[in-house]
UniProtKB/TrEMBL annotation:
Similarity comment: Belongs to the NAD(P)H dehydrogenase (quinone) family.
Highest taxon in the source lineage: Bacteria
UniProt entry keywords in alphabetical sequence: Oxidoreductase
A Pfam family the protein falls into: Flavodoxin_2
Oxidoreductase in keyword set: yes
InterPro entries per record: Flavodoxin_fold (IPR003680), Flavoprotein-like_sf (IPR029039), NAD(P)H_dehydrogenase_qn (IPR051545)
Flavodoxin-like fold domain boundaries: 1-137
Protein name (record): NAD(P)H-dependent oxidoreductase
Entry annotated with the keyword Oxidoreductase: yes
Classification via SUPFAM superfamilies: Flavoproteins
Length: 193
């Protein structure tokens, strides 16, 4: 299976980068063809410009500024997000990726005023997230990233398929032991993906 792995952490020598590298390695070990997309390393421009917004519904012209990313998404059969959670949301670069790449004609189409998915070719979805917050604080805040993955993205891909959701909470108080344990959990989950 061809798996697109989206990564959005700007620091090279970080735990987030270690999670990304381990995710890629484990997926490859499981026999998947992996397309690692490190948004910062690729200098992805997350800004949806005025021009982009005006052309938003004009498929296929709307894809021209992000054509290579659209092609990668269309080839994917699996999707894995590896990202930190900042202020109970995704980093702007990842949010911008969704705004600029998951366009009408690419990820969905409006048919008689109803949204129809164009991502049914993606058979598996997973997320590997790190939170500064504790699980309780994330719960009290409504845990928007978890809902986006398990509800919004899942609905766009296939609402009947299970989602692998892995989160290391309370990174502000993590230890070498908690990080190692979570890295092992990610390794195991990606080898079964």
């Amino acid at each position: 299976m061809r798996v697109l792995v989206l990564h959005s952490h700007p620091v090279e020598e970080s735990y987030g980068k270690a999670l990304y590298k381990q995710t890629l390695e484990s997926l490859r070990k499981a026999g998947h063809e992996v397309d690692g997309c490190d948004l910062y390393a690729e200098n992805f421009d997350p800004v949806l410009s005025r021009h982009d917004r005006l052309a938003y519904h004009d498929y296929p012209g709307n894809t021209e500024p992000v054509k290579s990313h659209v092609e990668r998404l269309k080839r994917a059969e699996g999707l894995v997000l590896v990202t930190p959670v900042w202020n109970f949301g995704f980093p702007a670069i990842l949010k911008g990726y969704f705004d600029r790449v998951w366009l009408p004609g690419v990820s969905f189409e409006l048919v008689d005023g109803k949204v129809e998915s164009r991502l049914r070719h993606i058979r598996k979805l997973a997320a590997v997230l790190t939170y500064g917050a504790t699980p309780f604080r994330a719960f009290v805040a409504g845990n928007p990233p978890k809902k986006i993955v398990k509800r919004v993205l899942r609905a766009q891909i296939n609402p009947l398929r299970p989602v692998t959701f892995l989160a290391h909470y309370d990174m502000n108080n993590c230890t070498e032991e908690t990080r190692t344990r979570f890295l092992q959990k990610v390794t195991s989950a990606m080898e079964r993906f």
